[in-house]
Amino acid sequence: MTASAPITQDVVTIARKLPETDRINLVGLTRPQLRAALIENGTPENKVRMRVDQIWQWIYQKGVRDFDAMTNLAKGYRAELAGRFAIGVPAIVSKQVSADGTRKYLVRIAGGHEVETVYIPEADRGTLCISSQVGCTLTCSFCHTGTQKLVRNLTAAEIVGQVMLARDDLGEWPEPGRAPRDETRLISNVVLMGMGEPLYNFEAVRDAMQIVMDGEGISLSRRRITLSTSGVVPEIARTAEEIGCLLAISFHATTDEVRDRLVPINRKWNIEALLSALRDYPRLSTSERITFEYVMLKGVNDSDADARRLVRLIAGIPAKINLIPFNEWPGAPYERSDWERIEAFADIIYKAGYASPIRTPRGEDIMAACGQLKSATERARRSRARIAAESGPAG
Length: 395
Ligand code: SAH
Ligand code: SF4
What we know:
Radius of gyration: 22 Å
CATH superfamily of the largest domain: Aldolase class I
Structural class: alpha/beta
CATH architecture of the largest domain: Alpha-Beta Barrel
Bound molecules: S-adenosyl-L-homocysteine, iron/sulfur cluster
CATH topology of the largest domain: TIM Barrel
Order of helices and strands: EEHHHEEEEEEEHEHEHEHHEHEHH
Number of strands: 14
Number of domains: 2
Largest sheet: 10 strands, mixed
Shape: elongated
CATH class of the largest domain: Alpha Beta
Distance between the termini: 29 Å
């Protein structure tokens, strides 16, 4: 399926049969939801709290997918659970490994849809980039996902499931009772920067991240989770209150005229509206700065004047500016800014007192870099359409 990639492994795993069964998937249920499900299944009220903790630990701390392995539960109870519930994560359809170690997983979810999940190993951390939607309703003109229509929102199970399947693949389930410290983990950070706009799927993203952050769940600190949004202003304050993770904003332009073109949601909530929501962001502090993502597009948004305007616009907001060299994709209407231009831009920002790291593109050889993700089924559909068009009318 991905034969053209440099290093490809087909890893057809665990095609969970959830959709065909009527068993309820426990993955992705919040604690109160799990509690309710267990009570409905006859678990006595005075035991349910302990059962929730036990099951939760087996699933999220030990990576167990089979009720029979839950050895601190009575045999009969395990059988009852297995009759009514399932522990299902989406299937990895294929995995590609870049020359730089980046891994891109093609993940199949119910309904035959596919999303991509990317693991990026670095010296001091390992970041998992997860998707929140199949496709995207927004149509940012530089983004490959934006050329694909929204197919559907992912469920909380499918969102937290991406973390679980990556842990399966990396062999990262800790020994019982010995959760490793965050910084020694293979997956030490999670970023919601894959396919989709996370704030247009708020509840599922929130529930999934609560499981990722829960001390009895995946147990990652909220400061190791970053949610990236194109600027869904009405949901920004809720992100701080109900999730509490770090925030990244896809800013990308310094005038409304240019931002309208690059990030069309700007026509609804413009730069001023966005900045005012950020100034009011409940968790704003120097230790929890907002990341402004800024894609460097040659001749479009990369002038010295843009850099100076950017600094003026965000004055007063504890911020760091992440410059992203544009990642090209077939048919993209933009080019990456020259390296000297990116450095000159970074220099102006740095001299104004902001950290201005330039993001190293990762996994470019397997199209895993930010903004390049798009489901393979969609790519295949398009190339079939193109071949049909090029070969002319049949007969
Ligand atoms: N929908 C969310 C999160 C997904 S995109 C958002 O837009 O923020 C993650 C980041 O990659 C965003 O900052 C996005 O603007 C950026 N991006 C998209 N396409 C890109 C491309 N081709 N090259 C570089 N960055 C890109
Ligand atoms: Fe959607 Fe983000 Fe791509 Fe814009 S940049 S189209 S919001 S995924």
